[in-house]
Design brief:
heterodimer; A: MetI-like fold; B: alpha/beta; four-stranded antiparallel sheet; 9 helices
């Protein structure tokens, strides 16, 4: 980053906004908006409570469960759409609708179907993550070079081996979809728990906001942001290891 | 300069038969959807140990014919026999070299070269030994652990060739193998192919749109005419390729034959 000819490390942007937050917070204009230092001091407070440990456990479990379902079914659905024209005609429109629909509006319906607990959150994570994974997998499968399939046929590949070639060829797109799914899944786990609001971080959020513990409230938000960004970063690293062959495909 | 003067060209009727045919093509028609006739009444034999080029302008169905021989496409009518047995699909006695290389980008050179053997269920150490031998033979030793994106186009096609050689098929089917490779690399590759033929003693069928390439490499050139693809003429250049491969390109008779073929083909282009 360059500013008036001076080289400034990228961290400076973060520090700038952190300082602004601190200063604005110090004016105590809004109850909702405590200074950053207060939020940071609340962090250990939040992390060490047993309700946080319980919330984290439920959140992580619901998140991973929903995400695992979304990855498996999303890749399966995308493969089906990419390989079978009829399935694509039947499903493509619906997958696109679900991808862009405001899924939060569906959570109350999910709640009625799955109850006020963990299953609702798992399904919410799944619904947030699965469609982008399916669409990216479909795109990947449609991009597989026809001559690679011909090659495997000409050397006598069985149906299963051809399927494996398609899966590996589509891997760059599949991983891109999974990375987006990972980020959307975090939205799903938070929104699901907020609406259910009696379990996980949703319960903590309502506890803090009802008791005007705004520093704690913000500390929890910081933790969630860090969680989502770390996960996305891990997947992005995995992607760069595989990405080289996205460009190398003819 | 010492010019080999053994170049002769003979023209025969479009149906050629010899007793030691390894591939027999009988009455093959191919009609694509929309009633486009790609191939019409093709009768052709390919002799063991020979290098035959299928040459013609685009749209003459030469790649279609090669893919029918490979078993990747089904003819609408007629049939193909390999070693006397009718073709129902791809088989281990034929190996294909692809125009766009068709390498697996996630696999190393060695694994790509061994892929045909892997599909045949050959054990890991044996298939790697055999693949290493052919990787070396096509001039890529030292690159075994590289990935396709780290290689030039010419080197990638060498991997494709090593993969086809490694399965030890009787017939190598090459679909415009040098068309995606730059000119200098192509010349070197063609020279190497002449040398490789002496070692490997296989039957080669080469699809090409380059007259020079066909004359330079092949024992027999099958000229196809376009829309619908039919046998036009069979030319057998008798070129002594044992000497310096560069001399062939300067031989006036080699150049004459190229001119002859070109004057026959130019009617289709104009």
């Amino acid at each position: 980053m360059d500013l008036y000819g001076f080289k400034i490390p990228r961290v400076a942007a973060l520090l700038f906004w952190a300082a602004l937050w601190e200063i604005v917070g110090q004016f105590e204009l809004l109850l909702l908006f405590p200074p950053l230092s207060e939020v940071l001091f609340a962090l250990p407070d939040v992390v060490t409570t047993s309700s946080f440990a319980e919330a984290a456990r439920i959140t992580v479990a619901a998140y991973l469960g929903g995400l695992a379902l979304a990855v498996v079914l999303g890749i399966g659905l995308g493969m089906l759409m990419g390989l079978v024209k009829a399935a694509d005609n039947l499903l493509n429109m619906w997958v696109n609708i679900f991808l862009s629909a405001p899924l939060s509006a569906l959570v109350p319906v999910i709640m009625i179907l799955f109850g006020m607990g963990m299953p609702t959150v798992v399904v919410t994570v799944f619904m947030f993550a699965v469609w982008i994974i399916a669409l990216d997998t479909r795109a990947g499968v449609l991009h597989v070079s026809p001559s690679l399939i011909e090659m495997s046929r000409s050397f006598g590949a069985s149906r299963w081996e051809r399927f494996r070639i398609i899966l590996l060829s589509a891997m760059p797109e599949i991983l891109a979809g999974v990375r987006l799914g990972v980020i959307r899944g975090v939205k799903g786990v938070v929104i699901g728990q907020l609406l259910v609001s009696i379990i996980g971080v949703g319960a903590l959020f309502s506890l803090y906001s009802q008791n005007f513990l705004m520093a704690h409230f913000w500390a929890l938000i910081l933790i969630l942001f860090a969680f989502a960004l770390t996960l996305a970063d891990v997947i992005a690293r995995l992607e760069t290891r595989i990405e080289y062959y996205a460009g190398a495909r003819a | 300069m010492n010019m080999p003067s053994t170049l002769h060209s003979t023209e025969r009727s479009p149906v050629a038969t010899t007793p030691e045919a390894v591939i027999e093509v009988r009455g093959v028609h191919k009609v694509y959807a929309g009633n486009i006739t790609a191939l019409q009444n093709i009768d052709l034999d390919f002799n063991r140990g020979e290098m035959t080029s299928l040459l013609g302008p685009s749209g003459c169905g030469k790649t279609t014919l090669l893919k029918i021989i490979a078993g990747l496409l089904k003819p609408t009518k007629g049939d193909v026999a390999v070693n006397g047995r009718p073709v129902a699909g791809p088989g281990p006695e034929r190996a294909f070299v692809f125009q766009d290389f068709a390498l697996m980008p996630w696999a190393s050179v060695l694994r790509n070269a061994a892929f045909g053997l892997e599909l045949q269920g050959v054990g890991k150490s044996e298939r790697e030994d055999r693949a290493r031998h052919y990787v070396n033979e096509v001039g890529l030793s030292g690159f075994e652990d590289k990935y396709p994106h780290e290689l030039s186009g010419g080197m990638r096609q060498r991997v494709g060739l090593a993969r086809a050689l490694a399965v030890d098929a009787d017939v190598l089917l090459m679909d415009e193998p040098f068309s995606a490779v730059d000119e200098q690399t192509r010349r070197k590759f063609q020279e190497d192919l002449i040398r490789l033929r002496e070692i490997e003693k296989k039957t080669f069928i080469l699809v090409t749109h380059s007259i020079e390439e066909a004359v330079y490499l092949s024992d027999r050139i099958v000229l196809l005419s376009p829309r619908p693809g039919r046998l036009n003429k069979i030319v057998t250049p008798e070129i002594d390729r044992s000497g310096d491969p560069d001399l062939i390109r300067r031989n006036p008779e080699y150049l004459d034959l190229i001119d002859d073929i070109w004057s026959g083909l130019r009617a289709y282009v104009e």
